[in-house]
Amino acid sequence: MIILRYVKLPSENFEEFFNSLKQWGEINAPVKQGNIYSFKKVDSLKEVSLDYTRTMLPPKKFFVKPRDELLKLKEGKWEESNGTKPVVLFGVHSCDIHGLQILDKVYLDEPVDIYYKKRRENSIIIGISCMPDEYCFCKSLGTDFAMTGFDLFLHELPDGYLVRVGSVKGHEIVWANEGVFEPISEEDLKYFREFEEKRANSFKRSLNKEGLADMLDLAFESPVWKKYEKICLGCGNCNMVCPTCRCYEVCDLWVNAYEGVRVRRYDSCFMESHGLVAGGHNFRPTRLDRFRHRYYCKSYFDPSAGFNCVGCGRCDEFCPAKIEHVKVLDEVREALK
Amino acid sequence: MSDNPYALEKAKVLRVYDLTETEKLFLFRFENSEIAENWTFKPGQFVQLTIPGVGEVPISICSSPMRKGFFELCIRRIGRVTTVIHRLKPGDTVLVRGPYGNGFPVDEWEGMDLLIIAAGLGTAPLRSVFLYAMDNRWKFGNITFINTARYGKELLFYKELEAIRDLAEAENVKIIQSVTRDKEWKGLKGRPQQFIVEANTNPKKTAVTVCGPPRMYRDVFETLINYGYRPENIYVTLERRMKCGIGKCGHCNVGTSTSWKYICKDGPVFGYFDIVSTPGLLD
Q1: Can you tell me the mean pLDDT for A19-39?
Q2: Model-level ipTM above the cut of 0.95
Q3: Are A200 and A235 in contact (CB under 8 A)?
Q4: What is the model's pTM?
Q5: Chain A within 8 Å of B170 (Cβ-Cβ)?
Q6: Among chain B residues, CA nearest to A309
């Protein structure tokens, strides 16, 4: 258990603090690219857009890479690929922090995935507070506030940031930069509370999660799945952008005539090949099966960690067919009554 | 092995037997003699077999864990990787990791009768159970092995089972081999559920293991329960597209929001009640 420490980071010291993070690793922060935001390597604070809503790819891309080398075949022997460098993820929203904790549950469960573990240990996560837009529904899932899973968390104040320290590494960063921080005042705390209250009231969407797992269990043959089967394009966008989707495909590729690599890359449960086995039997042959499968996967309730969905709203925003996660589940509930 | 769950171990092909036109039986031994002697598994578990540069496939082990030093895999030529595997000759090496999965709870079955129902390639994982039971004959009561296939030439391990038939009969082990479609077949004809009535097992205390194509299960379960076999003693072993074998890659995820299973980690052996509570598990 990490004892929380609260400090204040005044605006004028913000850039100094940002630059001091470079010694901890490569800084990756949200950068605006056309219409979307993306976590990218940055050199100066000018490139960063901290008022972003959501990036297209969640921070899972640093831990489970879109194309990830596992093993290398060299001179007839398989070697472990490595190449982990320390990264600082700057400006992560609380839903994404929760998303990483759900990934931890899968990848750090026995047997531990050492590639993921190494990257996780070599990363520093600095969270930042946000204002919800029309897609966010994290409050209804309880993922709107991160208690663990970050090193530092910055909360907006009129004249700087209120900083919560959440890990040993976070304490080390604060100790190393003791000069840039100030103790917090009553007024800052008051503003912090007001900000959180204002934020809590500005959510436009909420997911009714009361008995959701049991409700879905009864709705296996619901007509709503049949309706959405025709709307869904089966493109798999929602899987790629989801902070908790983690299916991967393994491919063996030749680099040249003597060397090969074993690569894993993102896979999507909307692809027909996802449930296909040798001999041609498909365990999820229709789009209805695949569509329902995703909703069951996201709404599986794990007593130790909650739902597999964090309410970031990415699947809604990037769905070309404009299917809305909350609406689908509400309709399923409605059809059951 | 090492702490990397994806690390591979070299294994040598010792022998290759032709079983049918599309299936071959391969006998492997790990090159590292320490691993070769100590490596063990439970009936029903599987390994991930790699052909370098081609790919990896999950294959059930079909030899008995009582016989140490080697393991056998029965492989059907069906896809890209298995076609390459079929070209292997004694002396070639492959890469193996495993064993994975939960396996059959054979320790709990001591003192019970054993009914094994296999169809098609389902014979391969169940041969491991059968051989385990034969090696520990005193632990089990009567044993019946129903081995079926579509055509006579597709019956796996036909000769092996026929060779021990008379000897086994004396030991209260009944072997029934039948075909479902073959019109020219001289032996028994019929689906597996038709032979459950001929089994020498006591329904009240029999462990039943079933493996076959997904379509077969419902009829077999119905017949079993009609004859009074206890549902809690019925086990199946399932297949899926398994890329990792350790519950990470997500391909074998199945279930609903209340019962969510990884076939590779929670299975591939499931009890009858898991099947009932998890839609989509069978097909």
Answers
A1: 89
A2: no
A3: no
A4: 0.88
A5: no
A6: B257
